[in-house]
Design goal:
With 485 residues, the chain is an alpha+beta fold. It folds into four domains: 97 residues; 93 residues, no CATH class; 71 residues, no CATH class; 152 residues, Heat Shock Protein 90. Helix content is 51%, strand content 20%. The chain starts with a helix and ends with a strand. The N terminus is likely disordered.
């Protein structure tokens, strides 16, 4: 009883530690998630301010007078991950960036469908929740540079005394004045091309030039914009990634802890089993010696000879039990056998003892022609005996019935041992605990019977055992052992 209570205290402590560990990790994860969210919210405000400045700059691009400057600014904008949608005064999309689903390309190509327009409308509403749209000037088409003016003074203005050269887009002079004494006019022979080129090069070196460009008609529009994609990633994906890492760590930690706990329990179990076998060995050897002496002195008495034979059988039984405990923790020797014979011998042992019990219990055997299985005969008999003992304790009816049969699963190539009794069954809340060491419904039970069964079947024979069903009509266990075909 003391050992059984120690078992359960150990399992309760393990459960408490596991719950404490899980709840601790989840609490820390929640705190970390909230802190990350707080940091990203602060960062979102700062990036929101930056996005507003960037949006204002982008909205003012069409108003930049110099085309080269506006083109350079537009290249900077194109390299930024910055979502925006530009619409005209009629709320028709004119340009966009960073809105996904190929909508930007459809806006440029003018192939937007009704669904696309609905999607753009939803995006604009989401953007406007965070930022107010910025009014802007829309240029119907790109501005075009049509020529250049080159001059020779910093404070330059067009007048009769100014020196200047006007060229076309290919920098061919088309008008000049005051170039080395030539007062004015259209291109004349006395002003050589070389002299004009020289004036242009000098103006270029001093950066005394400006563009002549055509600015088409424009109209009012609106610039709708959102935050950069980094905010979305930091606000949601980063905490989720961190939480996933914590969960993975938690799972690995729990699996490792369970493995360590399992190994520790197995080590205690193996040590207990081997010590039990060692302790039993000495008195058994002594009893065998005394039995030999008794047999020498009772050769003429049939009654005493019968008693000695029964004592010999019990001693052989004790030797088998000792051998079973000695094999715990080591690799048992397995041979190909017909498991029906092994089961029958275990049943026969109990059959001869059933009449001595107060209640009548019948054991019904049904064996099919199944393939041989590589098993340790001694340990497999132990499995059947433990199952029968549990059934005998669970049967609360005047007439008990235990059914044992074997079958062969052709698809999975498993030999099945189907064991069923008509005992009082196992309650639903305890069904997951029946194979745990220390679990017992008996007042003075150790709770090791089914735990030993599970270890022998799954640990030593690469098989499986499961509780198939249990209720008021009884309990059914199914054992699967790999067949040797």
């Amino acid at each position: 009883m003391l050992i059984r209570n120690m078992y359960w205290r150990g399992f309760r402590s393990t459960g408490f530690f596991r719950s404490y560990f899980v709840l601790g990790i989840l609490t820390l994860s929640a705190v970390f998630f909230l802190y990350s969210n707080w940091v990203t919210n602060r960062l979102e405000k700062e990036i929101s301010q930056f996005s507003t400045m960037l949006a204002t700059f982008a909205a003012r691009l069409p108003e930049i007078a110099d085309k080269e400057t506006s083109d350079a600014a537009r290249k900077i904008m194109d390299n930024m991950e910055f979502p925006f949608i530009i619409v005209d005064s009629a709320n028709q999309p004119k340009a966009a960036r960073g809105i996904g689903n190929g909508l930007r390309e459809k806006i440029i190509a003018g192939t937007l469908t009704t669904e696309d327009r609905d999607s753009i409308t939803k995006l604009i509403k989401e953007m406007d929740k965070r930022h107010n749209p910025i009014p802007m000037t829309l240029v119907e088409q790109d501005r075009k540079i049509i020529g250049y003016i080159y001059y020779d003074q910093t404070d330059w203005a067009i007048s009769q005394g100014s020196s200047l050269v006007i060229t076309d887009i290919s920098e061919e002079p088309i008008f000049w004045q005051n170039i080395s004494g030539a007062e004015e006019g259209l291109k004349r022979p006395e002003v050589t091309q070389a002299r004009l080129k020289s004036f242009i090069e000098k103006s270029k070196s001093k950066r005394f030039s400006t563009t002549i460009q055509f600015n088409p008609a424009s109209q009012w529009g609106y610039f709708h914009y959102g935050n950069t994609g980094l905010i979305h990633e930091m606000k949601w994906w980063m905490p989720l990634a961190q939480l996933s890492m914590v969960v993975i760590f938690l799972i690995v930690g729990l699996v490792g802890y369970q493995k360590m706990k399992h190994d520790e329990q197995q080590a205690i179990w193996v040590g207990l089993a081997k010590e039990t076998a060692h302790q039993l060995g000495t008195p058994i050897s002594s009893l065998m010696g005394w039995l030999d002496i008794l047999q020498d002195h009772t050769k003429d008495s049939k009654e005493l000879n019968s008693i000695c034979n029964d004592m010999q059988s019990d001693l052989d039984r004790l030797k088998d039990i000792t051998s079973r405990f000695g094999e715990i923790g080591s690799i048992p020797k397995r041979v190909l056998v017909d498991i029906s014979d092994i089961i029958h011998r275990a049943v026969d042992y109990f059959q001869r003892r059933l009449p001595n019990r107060q209640k009548h219990v019948e054991i019904i055997e049904s064996y099919q022609n199944v393939p041989k299985v590589a098993v340790n005969e001694n340990l497999l008999q132990w499995v059947i005996e433990n199952l029968i003992r549990n059934s005998l304790d669970a049967i609360d009816k005047e007439t008990g019935r235990i059914q044992i049969k074997t079958e062969f699963d052709v698809k999975k190539k498993d030999v099945l041992i189907i064991y069923k009794d008509n005992g009082k069954g196992i309650t639903r809340k305890n069904r997951k605990r029946v194979f745990m060491p220390g679990y017992s419904t008996k007042k003075h039970g150790w709770g090791l019977g089914l735990a030993i069964v599970k270890r022998i079947i799954e640990g030593y024979h690469d098989g499986r055992i499961r509780l198939a069903e249990s209720g008021a009509d009884g309990t059914t266990f199914i054992i699967k052992l790999p067949a040797s075909i």
